[in-house]
Amino acid sequence: MADEPPLPTRRALLKMIGLTAGSGTMLNAMASLGHARQSPYTGPPDLSGAPDGQSVVVLGGGLAGMCAALELRRAGYDVTILEYQNRAGGRCWTLKGGDQIEELGGYRQDVEFSDGQYINIGPWRIPHHHLAVLDYCHRLDVPLEVFVQENHNAYLHSANHFDGKPIRYGHAWADYVGQITELLGKATNKGALDSNLTQEDTEILLESLKSFGILDKDYRYTASLDIAEYRGYPDGSAPGGGLYDAAPEPSEPIALKDLLQSRFWQYMRNHTTYRHHAPMFQPVGGMEQIAKAFEREVGDLIQYNAQVTRVMQSEDSVTVEYNAADGQGEGGQITADYCVCTIPFTILSQLDVDVSPELRQVMRALHYYEAVKAGLEFKRRFWERDEQIYGGITLTDLPIAEIAYPSNEMHSSGPGVLLGAYVYGPHAYAYNSMSPEERLESVLEYGAQIHPQYRDEFTTGVVLSWHRVPWMLGCYSNWDERGRDYEVAATMDNRFVCAGEHISYLPGWQEGSLLSALDAVRQIHERATTSQ
Amino acid sequence: MADEPPLPTRRALLKMIGLTAGSGTMLNAMASLGHARQSPYTGPPDLSGAPDGQSVVVLGGGLAGMCAALELRRAGYDVTILEYQNRAGGRCWTLKGGDQIEELGGYRQDVEFSDGQYINIGPWRIPHHHLAVLDYCHRLDVPLEVFVQENHNAYLHSANHFDGKPIRYGHAWADYVGQITELLGKATNKGALDSNLTQEDTEILLESLKSFGILDKDYRYTASLDIAEYRGYPDGSAPGGGLYDAAPEPSEPIALKDLLQSRFWQYMRNHTTYRHHAPMFQPVGGMEQIAKAFEREVGDLIQYNAQVTRVMQSEDSVTVEYNAADGQGEGGQITADYCVCTIPFTILSQLDVDVSPELRQVMRALHYYEAVKAGLEFKRRFWERDEQIYGGITLTDLPIAEIAYPSNEMHSSGPGVLLGAYVYGPHAYAYNSMSPEERLESVLEYGAQIHPQYRDEFTTGVVLSWHRVPWMLGCYSNWDERGRDYEVAATMDNRFVCAGEHISYLPGWQEGSLLSALDAVRQIHERATTSQ
Question: Which of residues 370-429 of B touch A (CB under 8 A)?
């Protein structure tokens, strides 16, 4: 059965290299039940037996750096974190009223959201199978709430199709599925199927197509109350009560050729990728609650405002030099036995770092995705009250690409902040070259094509260009081909080991940061315990 | 465009009969934007101009009765509610520790859930397009949270397929969609398609099938990292970080013939019916929060413990006789100008009610669905911690039919209550004939086939048979054919008008109860204002 392949070698390996699970009971329970695990995470690593007096300097106080520090200190290592900013968390970042954003080129934006309003300008959602993130949230008391990813009532929009008017996602989805199923039903019925199915299975297939596509007795997907029960009803003609406007009316599907030409089908698996499988989660109060939870644990280890300039290695130590990032304080130098470096390769490749030529080469080669994200506050949650869109994402072929509606404070009477743009690819380069004011105007202009309420209801907004963020110079890593390069990047180089989302198979996801940090910690501990 | 048909006659009718929206601004905004409305609800009715001194007796203090009372009193009518139980809300009912359930046959169950734990034993979810329910929640300050309906990580289970082991819903869904899309791709490629599509559109169709089905360049759905990105990865082989178990492994699909024979395809539109479109909601703290909110408004009008025995009508009044439901207090008699009757037809048809022969005939004929629901408390939320199932529903061909995981307190370390059975059809009759203890044992026995943790973790549970609930004798109405019968049931009979989910096109849904109540109120107000 595809669901539960036996993996004795993996388990055996697990024991062999001594990385037994911290929560072994859970792991054993899982194994005996035969239930699938969806992540390599099996609990925090067992770092018992750490030698006395060993020290680690961690570069970067984002999630990877703080997670590494937490586990290393717990194991008895002496840890210091150097952080460029005056806040911990890195890209785990929530913008709220009173915050300031600085970008290269002297651009500065003041965030003026109302009390309690925010935008998660970096990561914004947590899959239910990101076991490390969920487990740390659990252990560090970070309350979570559901993040609505798929919303059948959100829109699909194209400037050049359906007169530029948005279509409800649920309509397009049901009509595409219904009509391709109808085509398959017809082909099957005329014996045109090229399959290995027996006659009996072919009959079950036909039955299943009727059920899945909502086809009538002649295998047609046509206007009817039956399809309305799945796609929805015409405007104002949903089932009601009593006598008044109560009887539902049949619903007319969108023609297949129009759906095909609109290319809306491109979006129809967006919410059923594994990483977006329902349900997803977000921390109550903003993604930064995860950063703050880690900071509560290891904040005392963090030296803020420390801009790393140089990393030197010897046979028995690592020395890191740093300046005051704001040019105001004192710089300094730290020597430790090991170094965990979470600085993104965009930045690290520009520093004087004493690593192998191979690692240096990989640092320079790794490309980062560009992305521009906008947070827009509106006086009124018109998407909820006028259009019944609670959370979820509208997808458009305009440069803004997405409008994502907040999953927090749904149904409230107050204002709301939505993600007004998630720009990537060539459009992001265009936005990168605009001033923040120009970007905002552009985002509002495009958004108003989908929600005409924009201009009346808008109060304040920010548009962040991740390529211009001085401590990132990009959004997240883009491994075209991993091969040997990834292995080099992820392997300890003398006493220096990298961590962060870029050192993972989950680029851009916090799970990747945490898992890479745990592996960095594993490598240090292995080295520390075997080299005694 | 199918999305937004013009409905001038509907709007015209709206104004003509004087039912202008209470929230007219919203309605106008909607109309001018051309956005779809998904319900006939346009705000509470305008009941201005009610004559002085008119009275209404409302039979039943469930949602329909309380909603009617709220609007009638607001309009100036003198209202009394007679309620059989000592609590308001009817089927809007949340069972908590300390509650007692009484059923016909002398069965009594004491609910012994831990503090804060509950089961919504009646309605348990609110669609985002049930505008009346949402608007009343908004106006009566009932906080809502997301109800997780579709969960890709919940199970599909059959006693007779896949060795009786549960399959993840997301695996079955992706593999069924992938493989039927592959079949259609093959048929299209060999020119066997029977469609009106142009050659150009047929090429777009092929491109769309690749995208929707996750097909390879040869239009095959086969084991690969590509399909793993959608269906999920093999056990323990999801993408990780660093070097340790980090590289993901390809995922092997379930064979189409096995999926067909399992009949799991029957479940694949369960979560994409219009009434289950994501997102859905539930009140924080239990569904009864809606009942409690209405009770805060109209509780002073309710006479509890009043068992209606007779309804008499004259040309100018309605008189209702009632007994003390518990046999302990005094009965009585109330005369009013009008009567809104929300007593289910299962009960009402047994009483001495002075209505037209047509209405009496309809009351007797209406069938009600049977249903048995179980709430089971477990020490530990093993479905979350062991199996990463947060909310959503497991579907099985065992008599329990469903196991639904709680959407409240997800990620908590404490106990949890899940819906251990939602039995309907012939199986419900079988459960109806069992004692509560026998039902519970059966529900645990079946559930343990899916979750072996059941026996170790179970603490306490209740199993309610709706057919044995003395004030219901059924779960919700089942209109096979509406036709003239529905019109009779929903039309005012002299001074007597029925309301409740049975007087709606949304049987079993609270939206139906509220909309029917608003229409009953409309009919009374129309009669009262025109007969002066």
Answer: 385-388, 390-392, 407, 410-411, 413
Domain extent at residue B241: 167-270
Q: What is the dihedral of CA A236, A240, A244, A249, to 10 degrees?
A: 50
Contact A205 B165 (CB under 8 A): no
Q: What six digits make up the tokens of A279?
A: 């349900």
Asked if A16 reaches chain B (Cβ–Cβ under 8 Å), the answer is no
A233-269: per-residue pLDDT in tens?
988 789 999 998 899 999 999 999 999 999 999 999 9
Out of B39, B275, B279, closest to residue A151 by CB: B279
CA distance A372 to B232: 29
Examine the fold and report which residue of B270, B289, B319 is the final residue of a domain before the chain moves on.
B270
* Residues above pLDDT 90, as percent of chain A: 87
SS (H, E, C) B103-160: ECCCEEEECCCCCCCEEECCCCCEECCCHHHHHHHHHCCCCEEEECCCCCCCEEECCC
Tokens of B229: 């990105």
Task: Name every chain B residue with its beta carbon within 8 A of the beta carbon of A481.
Answer: none
What does the pLDDT look like over B381-431, one tens digit per residue?
999 999 999 999 999 999 999 999 999 999 999 999 999 999 999 999 999
Shared-domain flag, residues A57 and A83: yes
Q: Does B169 lie at the interface with A, CB-CB under 8 angstroms? A: no
Phi, psi of B525 (to 5 degrees): -65, -40
- B126 part of contact set with chain A, CB < 8 Å: no
CATH of the domain at B265: 1.20.1440.240
With an 8 Å Cβ cutoff, are B385 and A26 in contact? yes
Residue B505 to residue A248, Cβ atoms within 8 A? yes
